[in-house]
Design goal:
It is a single chain. The protein is built from 13 helices and 18 strands. It has 455 residues and is of the alpha+beta class. It starts with a helix and ends with a helix. Bound molecules: ligand BES and manganese (II) ion (MN) (2 copies). Ligand BES binds next to strand 14.
Length: 455
């Protein structure tokens, strides 16, 4: 441990400079205008991996954004750890709410401020630097593969096929991922569950053009009024989702397991304070941790239609739109949920409007085993650097590739995330504390050590 701390101390300015180079590339996967930037990010990472000590690195085209694949095989008889991360980021809008430019990283208050500072450039870069340390110090105990993708934030549409076609190349004993968060800086924790996702866009059409709301208002259905009613009926007074069959495949977690989960130190007051709400809300009968960890949810991500410009314009709009997502729990299948949603949503529409629904993307949930040698190795690594045994907990977020890895590569993933909820991922002013960045670099080599030693 002393050796790694010395290495970090001596190289930290360079590590930050190198990460800043990556953060300056606006690799927003959802926008075609950033296609060049996606390529630039892959080249940057290729160089980073080669400089760190990889034997070979390839930029592999997929139907969508390319994958950066690198490896160092020290001995084929030793285990293979595959590091997964994503170099794409969410759009940075609304720009005006950022205190510094999203793609001009800065350090203030001990934190790196930039889009991707945590999710996932900062976190994946910890792995590149931990790898560099192990190579340079001659302590790399096993084989390493890196698979860095550029489509995570848009649902990894090309990755199922990519994994199937490259199954041999990607073959590994365990997949190591830092793309999640900890309960708190002083509460080390390992994510043992992720939710799945169904994401759809709906369009409600009324009259063939915007109408004068005086001449027509009251006599013609207003698509915005209709859409909001339809959405309101998707959940009931207990905040349960009303789509028939929605809960059919949900596995109820046993009381014993819920009691075990409730032991995780979760500070509800702090949680509320940080986001400035006075009361939490969700499905009756479940705690906040359970509502995100073991229960599905439905949210409108965006809604628009009609006149939203300055002042008043008296119209009855022709169309209304919404983007609606459902977070799913393990065993629910996103394709089946998509179908149930489409059927139900259409059935809600009165004859006065037309409805169309489009599936944008989806993915399945994941539960990681706590009785796996890799989990034990991760646990020992955190215990050594945080001085406390980490708590397992299920996160509400999604990483679609993780269930694909299990299906296509038959490999389990260990989610060693070092982010914090306050890192504001996907929001303006995303940040990553330097403390977490360096703690990650310190902890990761110990995972390799304990995992390779076996137990
Ligand atoms: N890294 C996040 C997921 C995450 C964050 C999981 C924190 C647990 C804790 C990932 O990049 C992400 O944002 N995923 C998307 C998936 C979607 C776009 C298909 C999500 O959860 O919205
Ligand atoms: Mn991520
Ligand atoms: Mn993300």
């Amino acid at each position: 441990m002393e050796q790694i701390n010395k290495f970090i101390e001596e190289n930290k300015d360079r590590f930050i400079d190198e990460l800043f180079g990556l953060l300056r590339i606006p690799s927003v996967s959802s926008k075609t205008e950033h296609k060049q930037d996606m390529q630039k990010a892959t080249e940057y990472l290729k160089k980073s991996l080669l400089d760190a000590g990889a034997d070979s690195v390839e930029i592999i085209p997929t139907g969508g954004h390319p994958v950066v694949y690198g490896e160092k095989i020290i001995d084929p008889s030793k285990p293979v750890v595959m590091v997964y991360g994503h170099y794409d980021v969410q759009p940075a809008e609304p720009f005006e709410l950022w205190h510094s430019q999203p793609f001009e990283p800065e350090i203030r208050e001990g934190k790196i401020w930039a889009r991707g500072a945590d999710d996932d450039k900062g976190q994946l870069f910890m792995h590149v630097k931990a790898f560099e340390f192990m190579v340079k110090s001659g302590t790399l105990p096993c084989n390493v593969k890196f698979m860095l993708e550029g489509e995570e934030e848009i649902g990894s549409p090309s990755l199922g096929k990519f994994c199937r076609e490259n199954a041999e190349k990607l073959k590994s004993d365990v997949i190591l991922v830092s793309d999640t968060s900890m309960i708190g800086r002083d509460v080390p924790s390992i994510t043992t569950g992720l939710r799945g996702l169904s994401y759809l866009e709906v369009e409600v059409t009324g009259p063939n053009r915007d109408l004068h709301s005086g001449l027509y208002g009251g006599a013609v259905a207003n698509p915005v009024n209709v859409l909001t009613k339809m959405i309101a009926s998707l959940t009931d007074e207990n905040n349960r989702i009303t789509i028939p069959g929605f809960y059919d495949d949900v596995i109820e977690v046993s009381r014993e397991e819920r009691e075990e989960m409730a032991k995780a130190p979760f500070d509800e007051e702090q949680y509320k304070k940080e986001i400035d709400v006075v009361e939490l809300s969700g499905e009756s009968g479940y705690s906040a941790m359970e509502r995100t960890g073991i229960r599905p949810s439905l949210d409108v991500n965006g809604i628009w239609g009609g006149y939203t410009g300055e002042g008043a314009k008296t119209i009855l709009p022709s169309k209304a739109h919404a983007k609606i997502s459902m977070r799913l729990v393990p065993n629910q299948q996103s394709a089946k949920i998509d179908e149930l949603f489409v059927q139900h949503f259409k059935s809600l529409a009165p004859p006065s409007v037309k409805v169309s629904v489009r599936v944008l993307h989806g993915g399945e949930g994941y539960v990681s085993p706590v009785d796996h040698p890799a989990y034990r190795a991760a646990s020992k690594a955190y215990e050594a650097t945080f001085g406390k045994k980490p708590v397992p907990f299920r996160s509400g977020g999604s990483i679609p590739i993780i269930s694909l890895f299990e299906k296509e590569l038959d490999a389990k993933s260990i989610l060693m995330g070092f982010g914090l909820e306050s890192d504001a991922i996907h929001s303006p002013n995303e940040n990553y504390p330097l403390w977490n960045f360096f703690k990650g670099i310190e902890t990761i080599p110990l995972f390799y050590k304990y995992y390779s030693e076996g137990d």
